[in-house]
Amino acid sequence: MTAQMADRLTHEGRTLQLFTLPLEPYLALGNRQKALVDIHRHTACLRGYQASWVLRDGRLYLTRLDGYWDDARALNLQHLFPLAGEDVVADWFCGSLRCP
User: Is 0.85 surpassed by the pTM of this model?
Assistant: First the structure.
């Protein structure tokens, strides 16, 4: 089995690999995973995206989504959060963040 690409977490100026998937609970709400049905998946990223996060003022923010649709269009935050600015507060997530 191929190792999966980790999400990224920036905290106190350091960027770390994040082995928790904070976006997954959001996608599970109301079956939002259908929004990513046409996302290109490869063996190193079966979920089809890589997310970037930042911890700021005690809150977790989604700052970027990387991935591609099957027709080669780039994935971005606005695909899942049409009204998003530069980032989105991950208020749906409560849990531990695992970084090696």
Answer: yes
